[in-house]
Amino acid sequence: MKRISILVLSTLVSVSSFAQLSKTDDVKKSLETENKDTIAWIHGGTVNIGFNEGFLHNWAAGGELASVSVNGLFSGYLTRLYHNNVWSNNLDMTYGLLYTYSNDFIPRKTDDRIDFTSKYGVRIDTTKNFFLTGLFNFKSQFTKGYDYSVPGWDTFSTSKFLSPAYLTLAAGIEYRKGVDLSLFLSPIAARLTLVDKYYTNQSPQGAFGVEYGKTSRFEIGAYFSGRYIVNISKNVMYKTRLDLYSNYLAKDVKDSSGTVVKKDNPGNIDILWDNLLSVKVSKYLSLSVGLTMIYDNDIPYSDTYVDKATGAVVPKDDPGKGLGWVQTKQLFTLGFNYKF
Predict the structure, then answer these.
(1) Does the N-terminal or the C-terminal CB of the chain have fewer CB atoms within 10 Å?
(2) Strands 313-315 and 39-55
(3) Per-residue pLDDT reduced to its tens digit, 37-75
């Protein structure tokens, strides 16, 4: 009888614990789409690592004899809920390398990005959806970048870690529902661009919006940032983000003779549109498709380059010439995936 009582008691405790765990999971799930007066940590994200390898010998159709490509993606968030206060953090990092036999397996970068956003908000209305929020954003990259379409590309870099680095500090109103939807608008947003003199000394126009010979540029403007995450199905997730920035201080840039070398005004809005579609194939295998498009008047595009040896102007071998000044990055990754 005593053993039966212990068995029954153990079963009840187990059922109670399972029910409590399910209840906790339900609460955390609801916090992703609703604002509640509670104390909790909410986190989630995706780690995706892709690897591709190819080898050809006496292949009639031709092709790269041997190649290896590796790319990784991390996209995660961590949010602290404390009654009417919300502290949210988002981190996106990507990196990719391509190795080919024809290039002596010297790695060529295919992707490189660091993007971190931290926001702290206090609820200001009874509908629980509007917050007075402060925002900090940091963007940069991990390693040096090169223009592989230009001869002698390995003799000079076009960018590197913290060159450029973009820091944005803003205060405004945020409309949010849980962690899945956030619309932030700031009428006063300060942005600082940092870059090494090595890059600003390469051209009379400077680099990344920073004037010739200088290492930084300060801007004040209006800033909008919208983020949305939706689970299309149990195994399919879509994440999108739109950032807009208007610099109140923008004006035409003139050279020493008074000639306008770059046109600019507050209506020339910087745009970042980021998209990620993640499909879970199995427990640790997934497919990710990403598309990022950026327009920044401070980063112009030219479909030609000057040959340093001859001084001649040569057209670039660029299949994306039609996109003009729009920076475009599209990636497809099939590989190891871990969600948390």
Answers:
(1) N
(2) unpaired
(3) 789 999 988 888 988 888 887 788 788 889 999 999 999
CA nearest to 253, candidates 264, 241, 237: 264
Q: What is the pLDDT of residues 235-249, one digit of tens each?
A: 899 999 999 999 999
Evaluate whether 284 touches 47 at the Cβ level (below 8 Å): no
What letter would DSSP give residue 11?
H
* Fold held by 39-339: Outer membrane phospholipase (ompla); Chain C (2.40.230)
**Token digits for 48?**
């995706």
> Cβ(248)–Cβ(261) under 8 Å?
no
Backbone φ and ψ of 164, nearest 5°: -90, 165
- The answer to whether the CB of 92 falls within 8 A of the CB of 290 is no
Give the residue among 191, 172, 43, 180 at the shortest CA–CA distance from 119. 172
Q: Tokens 């009654």, residue?
A: 83
